[in-house]
Design goal:
The chain is an alpha+beta fold. The protein folds into 2 domains: about 220 residues, Multidrug efflux transporter AcrB transmembrane fold, CATH 1.20.1640; about 80 residues, Alpha-Beta Plaits (2-Layer Sandwich), CATH 3.30.70.3400. The protein has 11 helices and 8 strands. A 4-stranded antiparallel beta sheet has the order 3-4-2-5. It has a two-stranded parallel sheet with strand order 1-6. Strands 7-8 form a two-stranded antiparallel ribbon. Strand 3 and strand 4 form a beta hairpin. About 30% of the residues are buried. GO terms for molecular function: protein-transporting ATPase activity.
Length: about 300
């Protein structure tokens, strides 16, 4: 009941964090990777010890190809992201990477992605997020179709989507900060992380909503009930399970952050932030919003049939 009694505080915390994330996105923007804007992806590996990243000085040696993003891969490789390269520019890049280095160089992969492909990926990514959100609303409205009082079934779905937007907005704000400070680029892994967060977060929310539905059915039974008390009791019965489940996933993701490859590091950070924010929203945002909506309708209690 502590969370429900202080629902305005928890809702305000979420609103402030979402506002900060949106302002960060508007103020700093985000670096878009070649998956969306088009460009070239070159992966190389040195047969012996690779040179230090600072010693490559690609931006100074190849100013015509800037901006260049160089990321370490494995123990001896580098991943270079750049604008679309001609064959001559591609050879010049490989020559610059190998010159002044005692260790021979081997090119593992070279991909060129056109702008039209990037636009198509952007369209499909946005469409995927919209369709997932609509599917969640429809599913929850159908699953809760017999719970029409004191809150209509579609409102459960609407609140679930509001919490999902919250769960995506805050990790996105974190990603914007990482992009501003460390030059992290938005790529297809970011979209995968967003869709994964949507799925993981809504499962917790549905579990708690389902507990509320069951308690309404059991405790109502033709009598007048205190909706706020039922929601608070449902939270007390569910939050330990939600936190425990999320912690097991977060521990795995933390191991991926600290011990996994660099290429999936920021993907794991996004998922970890999404899990933490999603657990918070399921417990401290979704149910308080449900009670707030009930009170906004002016119904302090109702008869459940």
């Amino acid at each position: 009941m502590f969370i429900i009694r202080n629902k305005k505080i928890f809702i305000s915390i979420s609103a402030v964090l979402v506002a900060i994330s949106i302002l960060s996105l508007l103020f700093f923007g985000v670096r878009v990777g070649i998956d969306f804007k088009g460009g070239a992806l070159t992966e190389v590996v040195y047969t012996a010890e690779r040179p230090a990243q600072a010693d490559l000085e690609l931006s100074q040696k190849l100013p015509a190809l800037s901006p260049l993003l160089v990321q370490p891969v494995g123990d001896r490789g580098y991943l270079i992201k750049s604008r679309d390269l001609s064959e001559a520019e591609h050879r010049e890049l490989l020559l610059t990477l190998s010159e002044d280095n005692a260790s021979p160089l081997e090119e593992l992969n070279f991909n060129s992605i056109g702008p039209s492909v990037g636009r198509e990926l952007t369209r499909k990514a946005v469409l995927a997020v919209i369709l997932v959100s609509l599917a969640i609303i429809c599913f929850i409205a159908f699953a809760f179709r017999k719970v029409s009082r004191p809150i209509s079934s579609w409102r459960y779905g609407f609140i679930a989507v509001v919490t999902l937007l919250h769960d995506v907005a805050i990790p996105t704000g974190l990603f914007v900060l990482l992009s501003h400070l460390y030059g992290v680029e938005l790529d297809t892994l970011f979209v995968v992380a967003v869709l994964t967060v949507l799925g993981l977060s809504v499962s917790d929310t549905i579990v708690i909503f389902d507990r509320i539905r069951e308690n309404l059915r059991i405790e109502g039974n033709g009598t007048r009930v205190d909706f706020q008390a039922i929601v608070g009791r449902s939270l007390e019965q569910s939050y330990v399970r939600s936190i425990s489940t999320s912690l097991t996933v977060i521990l795995v993701l933390l191991s991926l952050i600290f011990f996994g490859p660099v290429s999936t590091k920021y993907f794991a950070i996004m998922l970890s932030a999404g899990m933490i924010v999603g657990t918070y929203s399921s417990i401290c945002l979704a149910s308080p919003l449900l009670v707030w909506m009930y009170e906004w309708q002016g119904k302090k209690s109702d008869k459940v049939v």
